[in-house]
Design brief:
The chain is an alpha+beta fold. The chain contains 5 helices and 9 strands, in the order ββαββαααβαββββ.
Length: 242
């Protein structure tokens, strides 16, 4: 069953509602009790209510980011070697953009970066308790781009999740709006959480082409300095309301 409703071109409506956020599966270390404090940043599970919002069906591509660079004069990713990306990368998600670059693009497009909670609800695609956007089936190359050395492929060439969103696992890790705090889940608001007020790192979600299967789950949290530009981090945008 598909929940997707296309109201804005290129975007999918995520209806208002409540979901369970956080790790829903024990790790091998949990089961052996050898490292009892590993991965506590994505716990505890907690219920979160989110107002309705729309999310880009795909990550922002090189050609979409090029339009932004051309219109605003914003700096280009360093691998372009000029103001335009290589034609072969047109439909590949843009990368080598830091958090500020991603935020600037979203604002230019009349949108914003998703909160961490919005990202996770969207990635789950309506599947409570599952580990991946498609369910609990172990990842394969037919489901996600992961654990490879050649970079991401074009957007939307793999099946979407239940909300109609592509590439929510693997491909490119995605910037979120939130600052990272290891214990945030213990005190997170129950409605529309937006993360800590300040911090040193920004949250990234979804895992990338370079990550293992354990890092592309819907609940795995990662973080990085907002000024870093890497070939395995990109982004997609959201728009509040319906």
């Amino acid at each position: 069953m598909r929940f997707a409703a296309l109201l804005v071109p290129g975007m999918v409506l995520i209806p208002a509602g409540e979901f369970t956020m956080g790790r829903t599966r024990l790790t091998p270390d949990d089961k052996t009790n050898m490292r009892p404090h590993v991965l506590l940043d994505d716990r505890p599970e907690h219920r979160v209510w989110l107002d309705a919002y729309s999310m880009d069906k795909t990550e922002v591509t090189h050609e979409e980011y090029a339009a932004f660079v051309k219109a605003t004069g914003h700096r280009a990713p360093y691998h372009w070697h000029g103001a335009s990306p290589p034609a072969v990368l047109a439909r590949v998600p843009v990368y080598n953009v830091d958090w500020h670059d991603a935020d600037a693009y979203c604002r230019w497009a009349g949108k914003r970066l998703p909160t961490e909670a919005e990202w996770e609800r969207a990635a789950r695609g309506g599947k409570e308790s599952a580990s991946y956007p498609w369910g609990d089936e172990k990842p394969t190359p037919k489901l996600a781009v992961f654990d490879i050395q050649i970079g991401p492929g074009p957007v939307a060439h793999l099946p979407p999740n239940g909300f109609g969103l592509h590439d929510m696992a693997g491909g490119i890790s995605e910037w979120c709006a939130d600052w990272f705090e290891r214990d945030y889940y213990k005190n997170s608001p129950a409605k529309n959480p937006t993360g800590p007020d300040t911090g040193m790192y920004k949250v990234i979600r979804g895992g990338a082409w370079s990550d293992s299967a354990a890092r592309i789950t819907v609940f795995y949290r990662n973080w990085i300095r907002p000024t870093q530009r890497t070939p395995n981090i990109g982004f997609r945008c959201v728009k509040p309301g319906m």
